[in-house]
Amino acid sequence: MRIFLPFLLVLALPTRHASLSGSGAGVEVKVCKGVSESPDIIKAVLRACILICVAYLPALRVTGEVQALVRKSSPPDFWEIAKEYEKVLHDYVPRLLGSAATYFESTNFTDITSSMNHIVSATTAFRDNIKGALDAHHITFDIFTEELEGTFMTIVNKIENIPLPDKASGHAERAEMVEKVLDDTERELKKLAARYEIEEDIAAYLMALKPRVKALIVTVSDINEQYPQLLPVLAFSVAALLVPESWILRPFLSMFGFGPMGPVKGSTAALLQSRFWGAAVDGDSWFSWLQAAGMGAIPTWGGLVTKVPLLVGGLLAMLLPCCNRG
């Protein structure tokens, strides 16, 4: 019952010059004149109710069309749902990161979008280049992807054997780990390339890929060190942006903790996230962000970094746009 009290409080606010303050975060929302008479506020409250369910009621965490997709598989597959909503995510994530860049006055957030666009473009070119060679060996991309996943799991097993540090890795330690993973990736992919006579294609792809991946890791690291509460947003954003070329980027970037499943599942995914970022992303948050994308909901950034509960943060995120138009 306590879960819905803040929601009832918002509904009970007077329609003129009312405010809702959060003592812990110093958050104040002014309810504009006549806001209760606007249909926008009704939509906002309804969306906020959905966010409440997403945050607090696991059985209702994913709704509508997304819920229908979830029912197709048990447990729900993040990647299956993300693929179905590829266009929505393609539009939503740059807007999400752009909003963060504006709020935090930092281009690091939009740099993530830029790095991922380059990574996806390079991967698209690589896929087009190797298609003929794979066809000549009567190998489909599905089969090739399975082989890639096995290749990346070999690397993951090596990472798992490295003892976890007592504290989150700093820039130097993380850079060393990234370099090692990329070197192992190059070595293993060259073995696979020789089998299908695509050595030159692999070499060109890795030459384009490696600097972009390093830039991505550095950018995410910089944000994560300053705002560790944003790790779920950052991990989700990278995972969502890789979807167009998930056949190789899904298992590859999962090694750096960007994704809940794939060849890297369960405790292994949590271990990789902890190793690179100092914390694991809660499994349910991946689906919560999918739902937010489906609604086009942009979070209250101040609420996220000051640890305002998602219930209140979600309500404020929905209500603020209405008030700003007043």
Name its key features:
single chain; 326 residues; mainly alpha; two-stranded antiparallel ribbon; 69% helix; 3% strand; globular; disordered N terminus; disordered C terminus
Give a brief outline of the structure:
With 326 residues, the chain is mainly alpha-helical.
Structural class: mainly alpha
Overall radius of gyration: 22 Å
Strand numbers in spatial order across the main sheet = 1-2
User: How much strand?
Assistant: under 5%
Largest sheet descriptor: 2 strands, antiparallel
- The helical percent reads 55-70%
Could you tell me the number of beta strands? 2
* Count of discrete alpha- or pi-helical segments spanning 4 or more residues: 15
Low-confidence stretches: 1-38, 50-63, 69-74, 308-326
Mean pLDDT: 75
Distance between the termini: 32 Å
What's the order of the H and E elements? HEEHHHHHHHHHHHHHH
Walkthrough of the structure:
This protein has 326 residues and is mostly helical. Helix content is 69%, strand content 3%. The protein has 15 helices and two strands. Strands 1-2 form a two-stranded antiparallel ribbon. Strand 1 and strand 2 form a beta hairpin. Helix 5 (86-104) packs antiparallel against helix 6 and helix 8 (171-196) runs antiparallel to helix 9. It is globular. Residues 1-38, 50-63, 69-74 and 308-326 have low confidence and may be disordered.
